[in-house]
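Posting for a labmate who doesn't have an account.
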Amino acid sequence: MKRMTNIKVTTETDDYPDISFLGEFAKKPLNRHQNEAWIPTDPDNMRHTIWFSPCNHLPHKKENWAHVSDKDKQKAIEEFGSLRKADVYYAYEDMKRLQAYYADKWNMEIITVTATIEISEDGKHWATHDIIESLGGIESDSGDDYKTTIVNELNEEIITQLLSWGFRDDEIKTAFTQGKTK
């Protein structure tokens, strides 16, 4: 015998996130590889500035814009004066984003969907098993639509596993619609 006793969605802080996609700060520009670029965090105070190396945007390369439509490139040129200036602007935006992260304005989260099932040979003694699907590295200020999409994708993974355990479609559907608990 088997039964589902609980399906829940939780969101928690990702204590060990990878935020390297934004870049890094240093007291002085470092030159570890040829694609590295550094910009001052405070261009008006170069003597006491901290330096930022964006992971994206710099150094400016024409091929970095290959995936962008000509119409959108033209908009960027009209707004910033050139694609290079747009790259510099976006690099500073990444810097501000990382500074906001370090100032606890946002964080990374993990969304987890857990289905708890119980299994018994005799109907008296039950073993409990959690089926867990999760995804981390989600920016806490992401929109609700994005987070809903993630939960829906995790739910699909849970459903696949529940089917492999022998649960019927109607049992699973009922459990998800009722938020089944003991």
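Reply:
Got it, the structure tokens are right above this. The two ends are 16 Å apart (CA to CA).
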